[in-house]
Amino acid sequence: MKPLRPVFLARQGYRRRRVMDAARALPVLGAFLVLIPLLWSGEDGGDAATRVGVVYLFMIWAGLIVSAGWLARYLDGHVDEAPESRDEGPRE
After folding, report:
1. pLDDT in tens, 23-47
2. 42 lies in some domain
3. Scanning 13, 51, 52, 56, which has the fewest C-beta atoms within 10 Å of its C-beta?
4. How confident is the model at residue 92 (pLDDT cuts 50, 70, 90)?
């Protein structure tokens, strides 16, 4: 009987693909987070709500920059690597 091969993917390849998925989802998450202040009601106080909204948007902006930088740094060394054990010939 032929020995069974593991069903699981290689750990590094799996992590690299998940980080790439996170990099693709980051703009969508950022757009959602930036639009949240539109849902806040402005009845409490105009100036206070504006200040809180500006601080919130700045924090989201800074968080997106840090997240994108971390993802780019992680993917920088991993994207050019050859996929593990893929024996694909030329397609006809």
Report:
1. 999 999 999 999 988 887 666 666 7
2. yes
3. 51
4. very low
Amino acid at the residue 44: D
Of the candidates 6, 10, 57, 64, the residue with the CA atom closest to the CA atom of residue 36: 57
pTM above 0.70, yes or no: no
**Three-class HEC string of the chain:** CCCCCCCCCCHHHHHHHHHHHHHHHHHHHHHHHHHHHHHCCCCCCHHHHHHHHHHHHHHHHHHHHHHHHHHHHHHHCCCCCCCCCCCCCCCC
Mean of pLDDT values over 4-16: 74
